[in-house]
Amino acid sequence: MMYVLGLARDLPYSMDAQRKHEWDKRGSNTIDLSEATALIVGVGGIGTEAARLCSAFGMKVVGVDGRWEQDPPASVERHQLVVQLDESVDRALLERMLSIVDSEGDEVAGEVTAGEGADSWIFIPDEAWKPGTYMLRADVRLEDRAGNRLDGLFDQEIGDSTDTKPQDPFVFPPFTIE
């Protein structure tokens, strides 16, 4: 988080100017974190904490879990989309907390089931896939069997504030139907 704050205040420029014994505020480009978006790659313990801290500074947070694999449908038909997880999760949560959205952010209607062992999520659209870009969206309340969620760890300190948790659902990498 220190690097985010340093870059937001344009610390590299300021340090260089200080070494040159110059002070030109016009050359500095600061960033208002409340208007910034943080992309967190990896939503394990470290990524979740980074998302919590970025959210505390008012940033919009988008998380990407590289361990989840998507197999996009091969053609523009009603082929299923399968998302393979690296471990099992609660079947009921898996079936209701993942969804597919189109490039406009509208949810795509379809049938959802959890795979054998609840380590995969299967989506079959109600209508044939249309060419375009889609995204997998996961509700931040989705949790693994140990109780860890996308927006916080099960073993957080008692009394930790919950109002700094990300409010936006985590959006995973897009896929394209051609």
Tell me what you see in this structure.
With 178 residues, the chain is α+β, with helices and mostly antiparallel strands. It has one domain: Sandwich (Immunoglobulin-like), CATH 2.60.40. The chain is built from four helices and nine strands; from the N terminus they run ααβαβββαβββββ. The chain has helices spanning 2-8, 11-19, 45-56, 91-97; strands at residues 37-41, 60-64, 69-71, 81-84, 98-102, 110-114, 120-125, 132-138, 170-177. The strands form three sheets. A four-stranded antiparallel sheet has the order 3-4-7-6, with helices on one face. A three-stranded antiparallel sheet has the order 5-8-9. It is elongated, with a radius of gyration of 20 Å. The two termini are 39 Å apart. The model has no long low-confidence stretch (mean pLDDT 75).
